[in-house]
Design goal:
Blueprint (H helix, E strand, L loop, with lengths): L2 E4 L25 H10 L3 E7 L10 H17 L4 E7 L15 H10 L7 E4 L2 H10 L2 E5 L4 H11 L5 E3 L2 H10 L4
Parallel strand pairs: 1-2, 1-4, 2-3, 4-5, 5-6
Length: about 180
């Protein structure tokens, strides 16, 4: 099974410091929906792993989050793709749960559900936490410069982290994944 793991906010959709709280606030990054459809057409299974502490902050409900995710699913399906699963952490950063990236609990959940190994699987994110989770778990870390990506790129360089690839956006990362090339 060929899987690609995607972060949500800043990768698939525009991010907001005020959180994405409603379907109306969920706006795709240009080219991201088509990139997911292209990955699906190349026989990749798309799974989302996202921190959603807005739930614990009571900024939105589980029903609101479900409606946001349904909008995402509908957009992807309209483009000819499919989302195989959406895994999220609802906890606050200080709760010390195992599922909040950069910890790897969401990746463990994905492995359990799909009965597969995520070692060397592409993990596309826009944050330091995404890259850290990917590298800790043995995934192929891919950073997009949308969302928080530009700042994260600087942070990663300052920390001396070099074992990741950087792309302008999900569309560019998807082309690399589909081509199967490693640099």
């Amino acid at each position: 099974m060929k899987i690609v793991i995607l972060d949500r906010d800043g990768v698939i959709n525009q991010d907001s410091k005020d959180y994405i709280k409603t379907p109306a606030e969920w706006v795709p990054v240009g080219g991201s929906i088509q990139a997911i459809a292209d990955l699906c057409a190349a026989n990749f299974k798309i799974v989302i792993a996202t921190n959603q502490s807005g739930l614990a902050r009571k900024l939105f409900s589980t029903d609101d989050l479900d409606a946001i995710h349904q909008k995402l699913i509908n957009c992807v399906e309209s483009a000819g793709g499919e989302i195989q699963g959406i895994f999220y952490c609802p906890h606050l950063p200080d709760e010390q749960c195992n599922c909040r990236k950069p910890k790897t609990g969401l990746l463990e959940q994905i492995e359990d559900k799909f009965q597969c190994s995520l070692r060397s699987v592409p993990f596309v994110g826009d944050s330091l936490k995404d890259v850290q989770a990917a590298l800790t778990y043995g995934c192929k870390a891919m950073l997009v410069r949308t969302g928080n990506g530009e700042k994260s790129l600087v942070d990663l360089k300052n920390l001396g982290v070099v074992d990741f690839e950087s792309f302008s956006d999900l569309a560019e990362a998807a082309k690399r994944i589909i081509s199967g090339k490693d640099d």
